[in-house]
Amino acid sequence: LFVLNKNDLWSALKEYPDARKLLIAKGREILRKDNLLDENAPEEQMSAEEIAENLQNSLRNVQIRFEGVKRINNPSDDHFYRMARFVAEFTSTKSKLLRRIEFLESQLNRYQLPSNDVPTNSNAVQSNELSEI
User: Fold this and answer.
1) 94: helix, strand or coil
2) Phi and psi of 45, rounded to 5°?
């Protein structure tokens, strides 16, 4: 036969909060059925250890949230490297596109005909291109 004293029971139930709530609810139900429950009594008194544990959990949650906010407000070096790489790629692509546009404009100007010299068929365009080369 194994017997638990009150302190041992509460220390064991501390590790199983769901079972503890169930046990307390069942005890209240039995006392209420026998009209032995004082309805004006406080629900449950927490021990100093439980209060300290709850406060530590709350503090951990606040610290985790604070770290997240701090990380958002103070971007890390990784963000700066990504932004610098993005700006460099953008500048490079922009200069390549500008060079390509200049090349295409020069090609367009090269093969453009004067306004009074409009060819009637494709042979005229080919002969004009050959004369420029």
Assistant:
1) helix
2) -90, 125
The model's pLDDT over 16-75, given as tens digits with 9 standing for 90+, comes to: 888 888 888 888 888 888 887 777 666 666 667 777 888 888 888 888 888 877 777 666
pTM for this entry: 0.31
Quote the CA–CA distance of 37 and 28 in Å, as a whole number. Answer: 7
Distance CA 78, CA 85 (A): 11
DSSP the chain: -----HHHHHHHHHT-HHHHHHHHHHHHHHHHHTT---TTS-S-PPPHHHHHHHHHHHHHHHHHHHHHHHHHHS--HHHHHHHHHHHHHHHHHHHHHHHHHHHHHHHHHHHPPPTT---SSHHHHHHHHHHH-
Ordered by start, the domain boundaries in the chain are 75-112
CA angle 86, 91, 94 (to 5 degrees): 120
